[in-house]
Amino acid sequence: MNWFKKNSVVEDERIVNLKNKLYKEVYVLIMVICSISVIIKSFMQPEAESVWLEMLIIVGGSLYFGIRSVGLGIYSDEVEVHDQRSKISFSKRTAIWGLIIGVILALYFGIRSAVLYGNGNSATEIKYFLSVFIFSLIIYIPLFVGVNIVTHYGANKMSQKMSKDDDLDA
Amino acid sequence: MKNIKLKMARVEKDLSQEELAQIVGVSRQTIGLIELGKYNPSLSLCVAICKALSRTLNDLFWEED
């Protein structure tokens, strides 16, 4: 019965692995290009409409990745592996990232306001920068830390449930 | 670390890297990189190579201390 032997031929996993690595690199490249485009456009064309497509690609790609990784149960697996190896827990790391994102966004909005509305006067630029930066810090740090922590706990719970369902199937 | 055992088993079977690759269903480079120890194959690929060379996993992929 040689007919069934063909099925045992394995796929060249090295090529598959390298292709997956390339897809990952392409994804990172697209995200970097879109982010640069958003930053440049927001300084050159302050209207929000001009960056919708880039934001759709960035947010859509991230959402798809997040939903799929929770659905497959790998999010909780990643958290488990991370917590086994690292001194800082994944939840703390998520909160720290929320803080970093908040500071970066506040810096970005501060610089943008100073450049766009400072009228070339350094005193006005510093005033705009500081007022927008401090106000953004107050808003974005609690927002991103909170959203990150809540999303992390929700995603981890759902992912754990998915992983358990897989165990039951096995 | 180079996989000398795999290379020896392949030569004993009188197979080139290309012929072994064709039997297993992978590229010649993959076999070459496994022999050079530059690529770690999955268990299913190891089993396929063992079957093609009529050896066991122990014979080809177990490293002595």
Automatic annotation (TrEMBL), chain B:
Pfam families assigned to the protein according to its UniProt record, in alphabetical order: HTH_3 (PF01381)
Q: Which GO terms describe its molecular function?
A: DNA binding
Which keywords describe this protein according to UniProt? DNA-binding
Q: InterPro entries of this UniProt entry? A: Cro/C1-type_HTH, Lambda_DNA-bd_dom_sf
Is DNA-binding one of the keywords UniProt gives this record?
Answer: yes
> Entry's SMART domains?
HTH_XRE
Domain HTH cro/C1-type residues, every copy: 6-60
Look up keyword Ribosomal protein and say if it applies. no
Q: Which PANTHER family match?
A: TRACRIPTIONAL REGULATORY PROTEIN-RELATED-RELATED (PTHR46558), TRANSCRIPTIONAL REGULATOR (PTHR46558:SF3)
What is the protein name given in its UniProt record?
Answer: Cro/Cl family transcriptional regulator
Which organism's genome codes for this protein?
Answer: Paenibacillus solani
